[in-house]
Amino acid sequence: MKMDTNTLPTQLTVQQVLQQSPRAFTVFLKNKTKCVGCFMQPFCTLKDVAETYQIPLEKLVEEIENVSDEDHNQRTKEIL
Fold first, then answer.
1. Residue 10's closest CA among 46, 41, 38?
2. Is the model's pLDDT at 6 over the cut of 60?
């Protein structure tokens, strides 16, 4: 079975995700989590968030990846 290397690791913490893609906060807000600003950001993984808020993990990862791609595309445009 081939593994997709573009998939965000589910063991990344909320803090790591937000550091890599600051606009990912919109995904957490859209899914009605309380992750943004929570003191547990350095410890909660995406898997933890999905389980706690009963969000399908694949959906959460996909939404964050989409926002991350948008961030990357925007930075690329700014450089050019």
1. 46
2. no
The phi and psi torsions of 39 (rounded to 5 degrees) equal: -70, -10
Tracing tokens 């550091």 back to the chain, one arrives at 19
pLDDT in tens, 29-65: 999 999 999 999 999 999 999 999 999 999 999 999 9
Residues 6 or more apart in contact with residue 11 via CB below 8 angstroms: 45, 46, 47
**Whole-angstrom distance, CA of residue 43 vs CA of residue 63:** 21
What is the model's pTM? 0.79
Cβ atoms of residues 63 and 57 within 8 Å: no
Contact by Cβ (8 Å): 36, 28: yes
Contact 26, 62 (CB under 8 A): no
**Residue 30 · residue 63 · CB < 8 Å:** yes
